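Morning!

As promised:
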Amino acid sequence: MLDGSEGAVKQKAIELIVRYAKVLGAQELCRVTWADLFCGCHEYLDVSGSDDFDAVFSKMSLCSELPVKLKAMADHCICYSGVEPDCTEVPDQMLMALPKRAQNQLYLSRFVDAGVVLSGNCIPYLTGFTPLAGEHFVSCESSAVLFINSVWGGCGNGDGIEASFCAAVCGRTPLWGKHLPANRQATIVVDIQSVPQSIHDWDALGHAIGSKLPAHAVPVLKGGFNRPNAIQLKSFFASLACAAGTELCHIMGLTPEASAIEKTLGAEKCSDLLAVTAADIAATIERLNPHQRQKIDYISLGCPHYHIDEIRRIADYLDGRQIHPETCVHIWTAGTIKYQSDRCGYTKVIETAGARILTGSCPSSRGYPGGVSTAAYDSAKQRMSAEQETDAKLFYGSREQCLRSAVSGYWEGP
Amino acid sequence: MGTTRVLHGRGALAGVAEGPALISKRTITGWGGIDIHTGKVVEPGHPLEGMSIKDSILILDGSRGSNGWSVFFHSAQVAGCGPAGLVFPKLDSRTALTAAVLNIPLVTDLREDIFSLIRVGDRIRVDGDKGTIEILGQP
């Protein structure tokens, strides 16, 4: 492949993967069977100075000055698209200007032609992207890497956007890090000295742990907490990955590689211990809410994209209620989940109340509607990301607090 | 001029680069921590906020926050605002990929605590062939 005998695009892709392996000190590559890719005409691509797909893809994804033509991803690799630059499926709610929309559609169509499934969400593990235990995957989404490594035993590193594209094209990635069993053992015990119950409790806990974890840590959680479900873990892992860059987190009594703490910790007995208390979590919530109660212009819910059960509960709450006319509420999910929501009538209830269900993106990728000076979220990840994305005053609370705020028009959280 | 202090590690990407140190034990967040058009650190409250990675020797203790980490440094480089050399005391997958993408001199696997020896603005030479980091001068 390196000599170009399998085509120029595979040659360029494997060149980056080999350079990446050499930097890591990896001796071998492994076969990648699932790839979750950051497709579309995202804003960062503007620096390439071109709007030609192959020129942009070559420079920004394959790291090649020589333009090569993308024809197909590796045949043995199932490829999904991740979050898109805007909510392409709901054109009347898009913020992107018309010429850019056409360019985005062209880019997406080239990926479809190359064999990529347009999935357009940040929860691929809930929409059919299912690497099994020991299977090697790549993903552009940090919370997906953490979820799949931890809950399913799939093997993936954080890598980055260029490496996931190159791995999808050449079907290989360096055999290093979480691809090797020896590196999947816990390095630090996290003693959870609180009892998280709600999705919000788990979301805040993820941020509290992530704020205290040392770099490169693989935590194992122990304590008297109740077993979280997949929806709670979705929020927990998103907060943790955002705050600490964690790629793998074991949970005693729950995740498959944490069957016994001694085994999880490996041959080198791990003495590092981190306690996370209810006071740490309260401090996290306080830190993310530095402002007095005031009028709320914008509420973004669904980071990570909502599961259908979360949308069902929102419809239950909003049935018969009305969103404040000066508060804009966006609820983000995957296209397939919106389809379920439409069938169940949840979308109609929610939109009758004055909120919108949007798919494919989030404020981090598409930006903010005009005139937003206060914004609220039920996700620590989105709340943290927003600091770099908007000058608005930011608020963080539970989904219920955000919904009460949506109705009153004023912040009803902590 | 006194004796130049030399730190040793593994040269992981070849070449030699010189520049002012942009160093922080607190790494820069992965999504939106850098303005890709200017190279400036824009993460609110970060110790390096307002400083530029352009032509610097960037020294960070790992990555944080997003699998988009590499594209921010890569985009800054494409926009003409990338760093000259890199030092990551210990690699993770995101920092390693960033180095591979930028393809500039990198020294890693350090034995000494570089954060106690180098300050922002110190003149640094990174030699990715020899695996050395020289402190040429401190302001």
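The longest helix of chain B spans residues 69-78.

Hope this helps with the figure draft.
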